[in-house]
Known about the structure:
The protein is an alpha+beta fold. The protein contains two helices and six strands. The chain has helices at about 35-45, 75-85; strands at about 1-5, 10-15, 15-20, 25-30, 55-60, 65-70. The strands form two sheets. It has a four-stranded antiparallel β-sheet, with helices on one face. A two-stranded antiparallel ribbon has the order 1-2. The protein has one domain (about 1-85). It starts with a strand and ends with a helix. The longest helix has 13 residues, at about 35-45.
Amino acid sequence: MNHFTFSGKSVPVANYVACRHTPARTHLTGFDTLAEARQYITRQEINRAATSRLTLAIVQMDNDQVVHYQRWSRPRPMARLLSFFL
Length: 86
């Protein structure tokens, strides 16, 4: 896990942050590995049916800098059907 200095103290920074955005709030959860973050997002995706206005993402961190942001999108059934015929 990376660290950065905040108010003279060394603070751990997660390598990957899973983001769960709703219109009311944003919930962030830190993970050491991408596999752990993906597993968390997958569990959130299963519960997503109840909340259609939920956005899921994984942020890759390097120290206290954002390196990569990937928004999680669910494959649409019609798109899968069309790709089958193409």
